Amino acid sequence: MATAATHPAHVPEDLVVTLPLYARKRVDECPQETMIPQLQATLPPISYVTNIFPGDQPGWLLTSYEDTMKMLRDPDNFTKNGMGKWAQNIGEDWLVIPTEADPPIHTAYRAALNPKFAPQNMAAMRDQVRERAKVLIARFKDRGHCDFVDEFSEKYPINIVLDLLDLPQDRMAEFLTWEKEMLHTNDWEVRGNAVRKVKAYLMGVIEERQKNPGDDYISKIFDNEVDGRKWNVTEVFGHCFNLYIGGLDTVTSLLGNIFCYLGRYPERQRELRDKPGLIVTAVEEFLRAYAPVTAFRIAAKEIEIRGQKIMPGEYVSVATPVTGYDPTYYDSPEQVRFDRKAPHISLGGGIHKCLGMHLARMELQIAMEEFLGTLPEFRIKDGFKVQYFVGNIMHVPALELQW
User: Fold this and answer.
1) Which of 293, 396, 288 is nearest to 338 (CA)?
2) Tens digit of pLDDT for each residue in 9-49?
3) Gene3D superfamilies given for it (predicted)?
4) In whole angstroms, how far apart are CA 148 and each of 105, 259, 325, 331, 400?
5) Counting CB atoms within 10 angstroms of each CB, which of 202, 307, 352, 393 has the fewest?
6) 319: which DSSP letter?
7) What's the pLDDT tens digit per position in 259-309?
8) Exposed / middle / buried, residue 115 (Cβ in 10 Å: 0-12, 13-18, 19+)
9) Among 72, 59, 84, 74, which residue's Cα sits nearest to residue 308?
10) Is 26 exposed, middle or buried (0-12, 13-18, 19+ CB in 10 A)?
11) What is the 3-state secondary structure (H, E, C) of 210-227?
12) Helix, coil or strand: residue 121
């Protein structure tokens, strides 16, 4: 950790750090086993991190589960409006819906969307999701090895989102390129160009569905209501953009983290093979221990956290990879316990709890069931060196497995 040369006057010098955890590069050490426990052991509950936001921009890091949950339950003092700077980066002002919306309109958006992502509706997709997993695994199960990220974890959740939105599967490679340019870069020009490409593509689809509606999800969004009116095209786009960035990355990153762990520690696979009923709680434990995303809230007014002044407009982290290792909340957080049954904030909290959380959980559970039920015990491929990407979405860029 290194201190920064300059910082705002209200920020004490001893709270200013630059963290390797947000370097946005590949490293050889597993951050969940080294960087994060060290960070929890050495940092105070709140720090001013010079590189916490993409583009090496500053913000406040909260290491405490309780402090983060308190913030998540306080939308009056902490806004999400424009949080990701997606529209601002290209000189526009639309919102990612419902992620960047605040009450009271957020309440109306969620009222329209929650039923569509309710558990029973997601459960109706179970056979379709399982079939997607089976088809992908069948392509390499007899080969004795696979490139897990390229052959499974990137394609599997994206197949499902493209099915939901009725978008062409044959453009998956292009969609993946845009997604990586938006979410896995520190270059704001690259990020902005990718946002423009995604917007142009989605707007074209939306306009076509508006003219020729079908039975697909996008066509039905136009029936949603807010404030006594139908959603407009900008709102439909804002929601589709949310599904695009959420559905094409988070589950992929978490799957890579999970299967890297299982590949490095085959004995943990045996526990799940012997007791497959543990997979449901194991998914929750992996969500705690290998959460990929650091998101943010923005201070809506001058406030204090742990006695530290936070000024309006400053970013405050929802650092799920870090809060999952809070030793004041979790007993032995460095241990991955498949029967832990502890709460976590990896799928959000408060009014912004993840809209797609039931689908995400189902995708993760089915992936583990199908891999463990179809393949023999697997491990990291001989000679392959795992690298870990540290940043706002922590993941393994490549993962070679063999069995």
Assistant:
1) 288
2) 999 999 999 999 999 999 999 999 999 999 999 999 999 99
3) Cytochrome P450
4) 41, 8, 26, 32, 6
5) 307
6) E
7) 999 999 999 999 999 999 999 999 999 999 999 999 999 999 999 999 999
8) exposed
9) 59
10) middle
11) HHCCCCCHHHHHCCCEEC
12) helix
Buried b (16+ CB within 10 A) or exposed e, 46-84: bbbbbbbbbeeebbbbbbbbebbbbbbeebebbbbeebb
Q: How far is CA 305 from the centre of its chain?
A: 25
Secondary structure letter of residue 331 according to DSSP: S
Q: Which residue has the tokens 């003092």?
A: 77
Residue 11 dihedral angles phi and psi, to the nearest 5°: -100, 115
Domains and CATH numbers, the chain: 13-402 (1.10.630.10)
Q: Are 283 and 342 in contact (CB under 8 A)?
A: no
Map tokens 């949950």 to a residue.
69
CB–CB of 46/305 below 8 Å? yes
* pLDDT number for residue 246: 79
Instruction: Please state, in angstroms and rounded to a whole number, the distance separating the CA atoms of residues 108 and 261.
Output: 40
Contact 144, 379 (CB under 8 A): no
